[in-house]
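sry for the spam today, last one i promise. struct tokens for design, 289 residues
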């Protein structure tokens, strides 16, 4: 049986979880890095390092890929993955079966706690969100023009071992910020990985999916529950107006929405193993995270 290959543009936290799943099924994974000194880190994970700027390495990895995942955020000029990969793909004789682009639920903006689906109007309220809207549009347009099977994934806050409320509590950096009526969705990194894998087995051109848990909740609620699991006192509540947050962090708390994952469940047969933050945090703690 021919080995399947995944190429990741922007190898990081999310890609690592997907890599672990796919390697168990015999996939080979290649991922980009910016600094040559990180080669050994990727190789230790069983990932073939591809140095950005090394045209030969890039062309080989892209031309051999059965699937391509782009996780790098857009900049002022758009998506760096698109700028880099499309000229290479235009010169290849075969295309990957699946191209996944990781976007954000920030494209929906503030919905005052209301629910959003993939068909909801996009109303980004930050520069970062607006750039994601543009990157989504560009990928879908290029996909249609070239016949690429491009799928967009809109993601909320991603958490997992080494990146959760536990880490902030142990570092004495957690705060229960109170923003009245503010809730947001989140996703355990393993559920993100399983959602991507489900899409890879059911490629759909121009597909758009929200991947998130089943229960949007407030930040203060999650921090309090994590503290309880650690048998630590819950941090004192701090009103948003008194929290002294940076403009970027404050903007996050000014957006409130509930994100529906119904389409991913219906079309991909996907179900989160951690449907709420409670199961997710309990699993992280049980794993030593």
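last one done:
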């Amino acid at each position: 049986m021919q080995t399947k290959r995944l190429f990741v543009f922007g190898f990081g936290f999310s890609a690592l979880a997907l890599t672990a799943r796919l390697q168990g099924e015999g996939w080979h994974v290649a991922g980009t890095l910016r600094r040559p000194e990180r080669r050994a880190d990727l190789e230790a994970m069983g990932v073939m390092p591809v140095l950005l700027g090394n045209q030969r390495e890039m062309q080989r990895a892209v031309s051999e890929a059965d699937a391509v995942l782009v996780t790098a955020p857009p900049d002022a000029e758009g998506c760096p993955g698109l700028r880099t990969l499309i000229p290479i793909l235009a010169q290849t004789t075969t295309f990957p079966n699946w191209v996944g682009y990781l976007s954000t639920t920030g494209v929906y903006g503030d919905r005052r706690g209301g629910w959003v689906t993939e068909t909801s109007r996009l109303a980004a309220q930050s520069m970062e969100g607006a750039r994601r809207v543009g990157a989504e549009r560009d990928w879908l347009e290029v996909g249609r023009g070239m016949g690429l099977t491009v799928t967009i994934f809109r993601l909320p806050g991603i958490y997992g071992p080494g990146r959760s409320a536990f880490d902030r509590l142990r570092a004495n950096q957690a705060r229960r910020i109170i923003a009245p009526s503010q809730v947001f969705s989140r996703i355990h990194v393993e559920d993100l990985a399983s959602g991507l894998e489900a899409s890879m087995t059911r490629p759909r051109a121009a597909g758009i999916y929200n991947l998130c848990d089943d229960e949007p909740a407030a930040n203060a609620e999650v921090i309090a529950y994590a503290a309880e699991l650690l048998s630590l006192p819950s941090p004192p509540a701090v009103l948003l107006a008194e929290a002294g947050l940076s403009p970027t962090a404050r903007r996050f708390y000014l957006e409130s929405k509930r994100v529906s994952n119904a389409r991913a469940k219906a079309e991909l047969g996907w179900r989160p193993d951690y449907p709420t933050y409670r199961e997710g945090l309990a699993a992280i703690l049980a794993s030593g995270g």
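The chain has eleven helices and 13 strands. ok im logging off now
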